[in-house]
Amino acid sequence: xxxxxxxxxxxxxxxxxxxxxxxxxxxxxDGRVHLFRAVDxxxxxxxxxxxxxxxxxxxxxxxxRNALKTxxxxxxxxxxxxxxxxxxxxxxAILAAAERLHAELIVVGSHGFEGxxxxxxxxxxxxxxxxxxxxxxxxxxPGFP
Length: 145
Prior knowledge:
Layout: E1 4-8, H1 15-29, E2 32-36, H2 56-72, E3 78-80, H3 90-101, E4 105-109, H4 117-120, H5 123-130, E5 134-138
Parallel strand pairs: 1-2, 1-4, 2-3, 4-5
Helix pairs in contact: 3-5
């Protein structure tokens, strides 16, 4: 039923739960987990602070790649996808990756609705609203920081 699962993670502590959930489903259905992360450059960096060549995108990509490799370590069902740094909207990159991979399920972490999220929505909400496949939103356990 779910042979291709996209696990979309970020740098939060919720990533472990997203991966664990995606792996449990993949094992049940003899599927694969494609581990993916979309990284957007922080908008707080003013253009005048940029240097040539700008080292920030390379540093962000290296950190994302290392984090994905760490999450996938020793897990044969996981395929690590290249992180996406070309977007300012992670939810769009997640949907594009799901389409490219022909994912049957997207597993993403919830970040809850606080402050501006109630007005503009979260990445998880946007993925769930717009995906062409099933979406499982993993919530943090009670007492989670």
